[in-house]
Amino acid sequence: MNGSPIRVVVCEDDEAVRTGYAAVLDAQPDMTVVGQAGDGAEAVSVIRDLRPDVAVMDVHMPRLSGIEATALLAGPPDPHPVRILVVTTFNLDEYVYEALRAGASGFLLKDAPLHELIAGVRTVARGEALLSPAVTRRLIGEYALRVRPADPAPPAVLPEPLTEREHEVLLLMAEGLSNGEIAERMTVAHETVKTHVSRILTKLRLRDRVQAVVFAYRSGLVRQG
Smaller CB count within 10 Å for the chain: N or C? Predict the structure, then answer.
């Protein structure tokens, strides 16, 4: 971010919730809320116009769902994908899996404390991606079992082979471990893990941690159970 405030757009159909999110985020010294949207279609228009660093996106919205909006803004159709932080009730229904496929960079429970929302925006803005700590492992396991056969198959050969150490880090990422937990498990420095994660994303040509975890399961590098 080079010291510039994180530019945020808040997309939520409940005006009271939307206003509350915007007020809390805009009050942070390192953030500025540059726009708001009350439905999915408006969200696509506002985000494409303003190109924020992070968009906070509700799943259930009129005209266009948050999932459909995310697919248009963070998926292959957009040459300059936006980082989307999806806020959901997180009942592990199909919406969550669709959001993963659509390219969401992070997920938070809708009833999560506001400090988690603030931290989540910062995490996604750094490009680190976020899965709510309360549901990460369960989500990954459930998603691995529900990936549709119709999904595009991963490449038969990795763009660039992973080293043994990078492969180990990817396996631990797929378990839902944070960088700190991986560093502790591998008895290495936190910065070393960050370097491995960065190289994994570069080699696999992936945008963020969420995509790496999905890739690990879909490619067969990791299998549920």
Answer: C
Please state which CATH number belongs to domain 6-134.
3.40.50.2300
For the segment 150-178, what is each residue's pLDDT rounded down to a tens digit? Answer: 454 455 456 678 899 999 999 888 877 77
Using one digit for the tens of pLDDT, what is the confidence trace for 58-97?
988 999 988 899 989 986 655 678 899 988 776 555 666 6
CATH of 164-218, one of 1.10.540.10, 3.30.43.10, 1.10.10.10, 3.40.50.300: 1.10.10.10
